[in-house]
Amino acid sequence: MNEPLIEIKDVTKSFGPVTAVDGVSFSIMEGDSLGLVGESGSGKTTLSRLILKLIEPDGGRISYSFEEKELRSKCQIVFQDPQTSLNPRIRVGEAIAEPARIHSRPPRVKELLEMVKLPAEYAKRYPHELSGGERQRIGIARALASNPSFLVLDEPVSSLDVTIQVEILNLLKELRQTLDLTYLFIAHDLSTIAYMCDIITVLRAGRIEEYGPKELILRRPKSAYTQLLLDSSPKF
Ligand SMILES: Nc1ncnc2c1ncn2[C@@H]1O[C@H](COP(=O)(O)OP(=O)(O)OP(=O)(O)O)[C@@H](O)[C@H]1O
Ligand SMILES: [Mg+2]
């Protein structure tokens, strides 16, 4: 039986008058791929930043199955737009080596490029010399540099062409298998979530609207809001 990797209990976060996350509780089990869906502004990114301790909650607590000093290396994030998360003046080899240095591990640029299926020569290139899909592969390689066990994927393919989206999703699936990763996968598109996740959490105005196994939620949603998300997902 899998253990909870991360437990979120009654977590709340406000920005001024806006309650972005409002009393959220759930667990992320080791090895899960948990999908987080909800309309824009429902609190998905805020919740993931709370989980990564990039921001502190106003209330509630988040506990980890590992020591909190390991958090920075164990938990990593892949952003939507690799364009903005990569420094245009830094060669991608350096960009990949940097996180490993922060965690005082020897950089393994070649191995990381191999993991994301890019040739070793790419280490010398600058971000503008890559396609969008290749840049996202670099974003993934960077996230893997500290040997994490948990990845937050915040709309990792939303900025890419549909054909490239599938390639990146398949790469992420494969990496989860080979590296035993746990995913928190954020997407607007329910067909992406259906493809990538086993468990789905539906967030609405900072609260959990529905939570459960993918099959159940996609076939027989209990909430009218989830049904609305399903109806408005064209590809689904
Ligand atoms: N640093 C911040 N300062 C002020 N308000 C914020 C901040 N971060 C988030 N918010 C607000 O919190 C709410 C939730 O935002 P969040 O980015 O978590 O939503 P989201 O579900 O990730 O949306 P999207 O799907 O568009 O990415 C929004 O109303 C947003 O304006
Ligand atoms: Mg967001």
Radius of gyration: 18 Å
State the distance separating the first and last CA atoms.
32 Å
What are the low-pLDDT stretches, counting only 5+ consecutive residues below 50?
none
List each distinct ligand once: adenosine-5'-triphosphate, magnesium ion
CATH superfamily: P-loop containing nucleotide triphosphate hydrolases
CATH architecture: 3-Layer(aba) Sandwich
What count of domains describes the coordinates?
1
Alpha plus pi helix count: 10
| Biggest sheet: strand arrangement | 5-6-7-3-8-9
Name the overall outline.
globular
What top-tier CATH class fits best? Answer: Alpha Beta
In terms of DSSP E residues, the strand content is 25-35%
Q: Work out the number of β strands.
A: 9
Largest sheet: 6 strands, mixed
Structure overview:
By secondary structure, the chain is an alpha/beta fold. The chain has one domain: Rossmann fold, CATH 3.40.50.300. The protein contains ten helices and nine strands. It has helices spanning 44-51, 71-74, 82-85, 92-102, 109-115, 132-144, 162-179, 190-196, 214-219, 224-231; strands spanning 4-15, 18-29, 33-37, 59-64, 75-78, 150-154, 182-186, 199-204, 207-213. A hairpin with a 2-residue loop joins strand 8 and strand 9. The structure holds adenosine-5'-triphosphate (ATP) and magnesium ion. Adenosine-5'-triphosphate (ATP) is lined by residues 15, 18, 20, 38, 40-46.
Q: What is this entry, summarized?
A:
This protein is of the alpha/beta class. It is built from 10 helices and 9 strands. Bound molecules: adenosine-5'-triphosphate and magnesium ion.
